[in-house]
């Protein structure tokens, strides 16, 4: 039986000892080595910086923290206030606001940079064609030019170059560009959320001023009736002239307060106009006698709502970009490997320019390594590492600020709700005191000075009550923004509301 003959796949040992390899084996080894090197990338792989986060929020039990989920849909959170005019204004903002347009343009720039970084993975192809006319002094019979010493050269060439990403420099660069692009997308979301929040707060303040204006108008009408009553009693000899003066002072002072609200309302209306991308003269918001509803904000929201904050997401993605830049700086210590090829035609005569005898070509790899740079690469690496440390600190600070803001608005809403209950009791008592003192004045048992005092107290309590309601509306907007925007009901772990009433504020 003949022995089995295996194909001679590997080179003979004598060839290895002699330093000679078959051409096919050399190519296989070279490609294998390049493939092995191309599978690695210098620099550290990204790991999220360690954070110390609370198990739950201090002000509200049941709140927890979790991993980022800024890509979750936020929805039209401003619709929670149940105001159709507000909804329309926010939609106009998203279409016409110039700051938002600038942020969107910056986002498109970052997207284009990613495409540019990805293009570096592919070969570049360039072509050229030219005619060169040159001359030199003729010296005897050794000149190869014409008798006048002038020669022409016609060149047509096509060149290709490809940088092999052996050390991962291009991959780390693409990783950094992609992270910056994602940070820019988060910046766009943060700008949109901030502008939406600003618009909603301005609108709610405007409606609170409308309610205060309605209150002052009603108070002016009541004071005018009191003045007429006092004048009648003065003419009948029941009260002194000082009562008429006090009633007149009370009326005019309240009218001045009502007039003062006009410029405040106008400024808010102008701010809203600029936010929706029009001049103040092009927007007019009619007064209304009701406030938007106070939304029922869920207490036990899922932890990802906090991490959905776009500013926190942007800060983390900048950490990713800085981490990738360390790999780019480390790759500068290693040689760059590129493949280049050139081919074309060169002739001194236009008639036989593009012919086989005039053809030329070149092909080969090239290694380029910086041998001395005076410490520039070391300095760049140290700068990249310091930049990474900076972005980590900024990310941690952004997380801390996000927790603080949520805690602030939670305690503000809770305290304002308690304060509002007590203020409502004070307002009820002031209204009752005003009713009693007016009856006593009509009966002639008290002087008008007592009436003025009680009227001023009642009006102050009415305005304080409206101010508290407005502060609660603003705090609810700020809390929603601190949580990263709106939410979906099905995402809630426990939909227990801060205020289950959600009543319209009047």
Most strands sheet: 4 strands, antiparallel
Mean pLDDT, to the nearest integer, reads 79
Shape: elongated
Strand content: 5-15%
The chain-level structural class is alpha+beta
Rg to the nearest angstrom? 39 Å
Major β-sheet strand ordering: 1-2-4-5
Terminal residue distance: 107 Å
Q: Assign a percent range to the helix content.
A: 55-70%
Number of helices: 10
Number of strands: 6
**H/E element string?**
HHHHEEHHEHHEEHHE
Report low-confidence residues grouped into runs of 5 or more: 1-32, 62-68, 141-145, 491-506
Short description:
The protein is an alpha+beta fold. 57% of the residues lie in helices and 11% in strands. Strands 1-2-4-5 form a four-stranded antiparallel sheet, with no helix packed on it. Strands 3-6 form a two-stranded antiparallel ribbon.
Explain what you see.
The chain is 57% helix and 11% strand. It has 10 helices and 6 strands, in the order H-H-H-H-E-E-H-H-E-H-H-E-E-H-H-E. The longest helix has 68 residues, at 376-443.
Sequence-ordered SSE layout with sheet pairings:
Elements lengths: L12 H5 L5 H16 L45 H13 L1 H22 L4 E12 L14 E15 L4 H67 L5 H35 L22 E3 L3 H4 L2 H22 L4 E12 L11 E10 L7 H68 L4 H35 L11 E4 L9
Helix pairs in contact: 3-5, 4-5, 5-6, 5-8, 5-10, 6-10, 8-9, 9-10
């Amino acid at each position: 039986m003949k022995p089995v003959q295996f194909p001679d796949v590997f080179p003979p040992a004598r060839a290895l000892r002699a330093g000679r390899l078959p051409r096919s084996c050399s190519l296989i080894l070279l490609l294998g080595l390049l493939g092995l090197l191309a599978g690695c990338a210098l620099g550290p792989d990204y790991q999220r910086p360690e954070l110390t986060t609370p198990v739950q929020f201090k002000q509200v039990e049941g709140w927890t923290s979790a991993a980022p989920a800024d890509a979750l849909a936020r929805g039209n959170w401003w619709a929670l206030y149940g105001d159709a005019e507000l909804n329309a204004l926010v939609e106009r903002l998203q279409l016409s606001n110039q700051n938002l347009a600038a942020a969107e343009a910056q986002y498109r720039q970052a997207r284009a940079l990613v495409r540019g970084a990805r293009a570096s993975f592919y070969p570049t192809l360039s072509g050229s064609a030219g005619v060169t006319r040159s001359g030199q002094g003729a010296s005897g019979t050794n000149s190869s030019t014409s008798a006048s010493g002038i020669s022409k050269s016609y060149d047509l060439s096509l060149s290709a170059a490809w940088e092999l990403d052996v050390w991962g420099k291009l991959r780390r660069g693409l990783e950094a560009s992609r992270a910056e692009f994602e940070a820019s997308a988060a910046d766009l979301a943060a700008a949109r959320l901030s502008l939406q929040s600003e618009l909603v707060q301005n609108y709610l303040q405007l409606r609170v001023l409308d309610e205060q204006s309605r209150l002052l108008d009603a108070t002016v009408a009541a004071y005018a009736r009191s003045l007429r009553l006092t004048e009648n009693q003065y003419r009948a000899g029941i009260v002194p002239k000082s009562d008429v003066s006090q009633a007149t002072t009370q009326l005019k002072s309240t009218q001045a307060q009502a007039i003062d609200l006009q410029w405040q309302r106008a400024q808010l209306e102008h701010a809203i106009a600029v936010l929706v991308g029009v001049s103040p003269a092009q927007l007019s918001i009619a007064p209304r006698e009701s406030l938007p509803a106070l939304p029922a904000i869920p207490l036990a929201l899922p932890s990802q709502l906090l991490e959905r904050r776009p500013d926190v997401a942007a800060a983390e993605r900048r950490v990713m970009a800085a981490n990738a830049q360390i790999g780019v700086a480390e790759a500068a210590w290693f040689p760059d490997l590129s493949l280049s090829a050139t081919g074309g035609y060169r002739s001194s005569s236009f008639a036989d320019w593009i012919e086989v005898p005039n053809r030329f070509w070149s092909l080969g790899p090239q290694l380029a390594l910086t041998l001395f740079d005076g410490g520039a690469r070391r300095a760049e690496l140290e700068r990249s590492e310091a930049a990474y440390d900076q972005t980590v600190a900024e990310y941690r600070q952004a997380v801390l600020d996000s927790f603080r803001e949520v805690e602030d608005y939670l305690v503000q809403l809770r305290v304002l709700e308690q304060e509002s209950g007590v203020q409502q009791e004070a307002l009820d008592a002031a209204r009752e005191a005003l009713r009693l003192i007016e009856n006593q004045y009509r009966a002639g048992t008290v002087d008008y000075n007592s009436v003025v005092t009680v009227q001023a107290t009642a009006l102050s309590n009415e305005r304080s009550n409206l101010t508290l309601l407005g502060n609660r509306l603003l705090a609810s907007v700020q809390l929603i923004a601190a949580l990263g925007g709106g939410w979906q009901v099905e995402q809630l772990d426990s939909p227990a509301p801060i205020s289950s009433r959600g009543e319209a504020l009047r």
